[in-house]
Amino acid sequence: MALNGTTSLTFRLSNPNTGTSLTGIGFTDTLPVGLAVTTPNGLTGTCGGGVIAATAGSGTVSLSAATLAASASCNFAVNVSGVATGMKNNLTSAVASTEGGNGSTASASINVTGPSQQPSQPTDITPIDRDVYYILNQKSGLQADLTSASSGTQVIQQQRSFTNLGQRWVFTKLAGAGGFWQISNQSSGFCFDSSGANVVQNPCAATTTQTQQWTLTAASSGYYTITNRVTTLLVDVPFAAAGASLDETALGASATQSQLWLLRPAYFRGLDNALLEKQEAARASTGLPWWKDGGQQMDVLQILKSHGVNMVRVRPSSVPPYGNASQAGCSGNDSCYAETEAQDLDLAKRTKNLGMSLQLTLLFDGGRSASVPSAWAGHTLAQLQSDIYGYVKAEIMAYRQAGTMPDLVSIGNEVDTGFLGSIGSPTGANFGGFAALQIQAMQAVKDAAADTSMGPAIPAPLTCIHITPAWDLTQFFALANQNNIPYDAICESYYPLFHGPLTQAQANASNPNNQPVEQNVLTAAATSIAKPILILETGEHYESGFQANDPWYPPSQANQSQFLVDLRTVLKGLSNNLAMGFAYWDPAGVNIPKPGGGLFNGDNQPDAIYVWNGLTIFDNADISGTTNVNDPTYSAPLPALDALGMH
């Protein structure tokens, strides 16, 4: 049992006499030092009408005045916690009765382990094997593309396209020593090859053709140099214009900007894990086992990447402009659940150290983005425009400075539910204030990337606007277009338990609230708006827990996994390759028991983390109704993790 963990202590008494009842049965169990009855004591069961004493917080459990008929038995249990480390050997007094005198004692032992040791945080800045990426040049901001589908033709750079499969490249790790990669085009099926001076595409034979073998060397913020095995030259581009052919040049003292290439997934398989560092701190402080995979405790992000996850979302609530975010003195249902700037910046570094992409959601108040930050209270629209520009630029600059430039930025969380008070909240009749703020924020993203005060300009992150299905996607983004908001992608939350059926077949079977069919909503938006679509938040039950179950995926591990498979199928079916992926909300947010009882959650508590019971994709180990941290399945991945990471 982990230090401050809880386990059940069960007592079984029996009358061995076949013809005689026993009365006045009693015993005392003085717990060894380091064990104590929990608060509450969790008493279950009875014993022959006797009096069971187990005062919460005490070190004693006793039974008195019990009666057992001939050959009868009884059971009762209390919960005890380990308040000091070490092996605890528990020995009861002899059980006594009026008729039989003293009987037997009972004994049991348990080892109380010390505080959790957080596994080392690994560095593995490599792509995910067989994943599909855009290859984006740091100097030009253009992406590797084909001139034609013919063998032997040169690879060039072109303006970004979300629909052109010729700009999508599959990275396959080759077996054997050397760490070489094959890079093949998703459209032509041909591979990156070296002609000695230029990069061309040829039929793939990388296992035998060494000119098709490439080494990836990480730089920062997701950029790599790409070096040919035979020529030892780096992939480069001679000038920044669209249409320029990729060539090969020697490495100087350090890589030039034109020799640096960003690998950005064509399809995000992500998660919102912004609460992770608070969850880790809570777990470490209570001595609970770490998350595990294959029975081994491991860094959570490493587990996720090994199952195919390629993106992590963070949502800092910066102080300022927000006040008391997740700190002592926080108040209300939102701010105590926020993540601090330091927590999320560190999580961003860990994300990039594993070669994963980063999604950054700004202006998150701990629950939404509806409130006005305390530092901006009472400001006019013009003042808010200045506020948001300065804040967003400073945030992006901070992440850039740390070598953790985001791949995708959203300005606000579920902004259709409100954005920076009445001035910025969008409505059908008044979209202008919202648009003005979004335009300023997205300009700040671009300007932060272009700022040369910390080095040469680099390509800006993609941007999206994040809403819920409460506002029809096509209608909302038609207004965004009419108001000239320069966003790159559509981001949406979708949870069946909140938002309705995924497919028409599900709606035909059951749609008790007559909600829109998500597949139809997405299809219409892809056709009408023609922007890539990312489901930025989603989740489904594997067991009953938080919120009501929906009729389409009754709680089970298999159905939770099937939901993610079905969602992927719907997204992949969108026209013009406009599926950008999806992200699961708080997948590792299993219950973390507190030493004094209850869980790490709750308003007005600076350590507050959301209860996502029944919807995580790590196991809560709570079949009995109470999370059992000693169960080997506690914090182990569920099948849904492989469905999330499927590629």
Describe this structure in words.
By secondary structure, the protein is an alpha/beta fold. The protein is built from 12 helices and 33 strands. An 8-stranded parallel β-barrel has the order 24-27-28-29-30-31-32-33, surrounded by 4 helices. It is elongated. The relative contact order is 0.09.
Summarize the structure in short:
This protein is α/β, with parallel strands linked by helices and about 650 residues long. Helix content is about 20%, strand content about 25%. The strands form ten sheets. The chain has an eight-stranded parallel β-barrel with strand order 24-27-28-29-30-31-32-33, surrounded by four helices. Strands 16-15-12-23-20-19 form a six-stranded antiparallel β-sheet, with no helix packed on it. Strands 1, 3, 4 and 7 form a four-stranded antiparallel β-sheet that branches.
